[in-house]
Amino acid sequence: MSENNILEVLFASDTNDHQVTCSAWDYRTGTNLMNYKGGGSGAASRTLCLYHSQYVLAANVSKPLLHVWPINAQEQLSTVRFVMPGTVTALALSPDDCYLVAGIQEILYIWHKATGRMKSILTKHYQTVTCIRFTDDSSHFASGGKDGTILVWNLTRAVSRSFDNENTQPLYSFNDHGLPVTDIHIGAGGMRCYMYTVSLDRSSKIYDLSDGSLLLNVVFNEGLQSLTVNGLETQVFVGSNAGSIFQVHTDSIPRVKEYHKEEENKTFSGHSTTSIVNCLALSLDGQTLVSGASDGQILVWNIPSRQLVRTLTHKGAITNLCLKLMNTMIFNPEHKQPLEFRANLKRMMDPVEADEDEVIEILVTANDLENDENRYFSHVKNSSSKVYDSSCSANQNELESLRKEVRHLHSVNKNLFEISAKQLLRNHK
User: Fold this and answer.
1) CB neighbours of 200 closer than 8 A, spacing ≥ 6?
2) What is the DSSP letter of 192?
3) Which Pfam families does the protein's record reference (predicted)?
C-alpha cells in the first residue's frame, strides 16, 4: 500500500428519509469516498462505530436495529441482522473491539462481540442514556444520561458472573449536572486520565478519574450539545444548541469560570443560530475542526485562523462524526475483508454454565508472592514467639514445613495456569 493513500477519513451519519445513512469523506478535498445505504430513517446520535476498521456500525434512530456495512460496500451485510432489545440511544465499542455497550432507554446492555453473548444488564440510570465512552485501554467506560448523572464503570466487574449484576455498583457516580448530559470525552492514560463532559445546563466539567475529583467547571451562555478535545488536552471545543462552537484553553483558566461575551473571538460561527451542533471531531494534528449540526451541514474549520474551509451538505440532521486514519484503498470493491463479521447479538442473557467462557484477569508477580509469603511467615513467627517462646525449635520446623508446602503449591499453580492458557488458546484458534 502506498503511503500517498493514507489519510484521515471522515465518517458521518444523519437522519433522513433518503437512501444514504452514513458517508465516508476525504474532508480535505470534499471527495465522497463511500455511501452506506439502507438505514431507514437514519442513524441515532452517539451510535456510529468502526469495528476493526473493516465494518461500519450504526443504530437506527427509530427502530430497534443495528445496521452493519462492510467498509467498502454500499449495502448492509446480508448474513447478520442485529435486532436489539429496544431503540438504541447510545452505542460504544471498546477500543480493543471486544465489547459492545448499548444504552436502551435507561438500561445499559453489554455484549461480548466475538460470541454475541449478552454479558450484563446495568440499571443504575433513572432516565435515558445519552452517551457512552471508553477509556483508551478498554478497562472502564462512562455513561451519561438525561438524569444529569455520569457513571463510570469497571468493565471487568460489570461483565463478570461472579458478581450480582443487579447490585453491581459504578466506580464513580457524578451528579454535578442539573440537566441532561449530552456528550462525554475521555482523554488518554487509562484511568489516570481526565474526563470532559457537557450538558444542557450550560456547563462543561473536567474530572480526574484517578481519584474522582472535579477539576474545572466552565459555564457558558448557551446549552451545550457536543465536545471534543485536542491530543494534548489543552484545548476543549464545545458545540451549543444555538449553532455556536466555543474554544476553551484549559491551561489558562481558574477552577470555576464563566465564558463571557468578550471571548467571542474564540467562537466558531458558521452554523445557523437555530441549529444544534450535534457532534464535533478533531484532526490528528489538531489543526482542523469538523462540526455537524441539525441544519444538515458539515463544516470544516482551520483552527488557528478560525476560518471556514469547506462545507459538506447532507439531506438530514448530522448525528455522528468520526475521523479515522486509514488507507483509502480499503474502499475499493475488490478489497477483501480479512476479518469475517460473525455472531448475532443475543437479546437475553444465557444462564451460567460450567463450560461458559468467562473474563478472567490474572496478575502474577513473583515479587508480590514472595513478599506476601514473607509477611505471612513473619506474622506467624512473631505470633509463635509470643505464645510458644519455650519451643522455638518446634516452631522453626513448622515454619520450614509450611514454606515447603507453599513452594509446592506455587509450582502446581504455575503448571495449572500454563496448561489452562494453552487449552484456551487452542480452543480459540
Assistant:
1) 179, 180, 182, 223, 224, 225, 241
2) G
3) WD40
* 326-372: pLDDT as tens digits: 988 888 877 776 666 666 788 777 765 544 444 444 555 545 445 55
β-sheet bridge partners, residue 109: 102, 121
Question: What amino acid occupies position 126?
Answer: Y
Phi, psi torsion values for 181, nearest 5 degrees: -80, 130
260-315 tens-digit pLDDT: 544 555 789 889 989 999 999 999 999 999 999 999 999 999 999 999 999 998 88
Cα 353 to chain centroid distance, Å, stands at 29
Q: Which residues pair with 110 in a beta bridge?
A: 101, 120
Question: What separation in angstroms does the CA of 181 have from each of 274, 313, 315, 390?
Answer: 20, 28, 27, 68
| 3-state SS, residue 415 | helix
Three cell numbers at 113? 462481540
With cut-offs at 50, 70 and 90, classify the pLDDT of residue 172.
very high
Q: Which run of H or of E encompasses 290?
A: strand 288-293
Distances (CA, A) of 226 to 5, 45, 63, 244: 31, 11, 24, 11
Distance CA 278, CA 299 (A): 12
- 479515522: which residue's cell? 324
Q: With 0-12 CB in 10 A as exposed, 13-18 as middle and 19+ as buried, what is 145?
A: buried
More confidently predicted of 382 and 65: 65
Residue 201, C-beta contacts closer than 8 angstroms, at least 6 positions apart: 148, 177, 178, 179, 223
- 364-392, pLDDT tens digit by residue? 554 544 555 454 444 444 444 444 444 55
What's 265's DSSP letter?
A: G
Provide DSSP, 296-343.
Answer: SEEEEEETTTTEEEEEEE-SSEEEEEEEEEEEGGGGSTTPPPSS----
Q: Which residues, at least 6 apart from 68, have a Cβ–Cβ distance to it below 8 Å?
A: 51, 55, 56, 57, 76, 77, 80, 82, 341
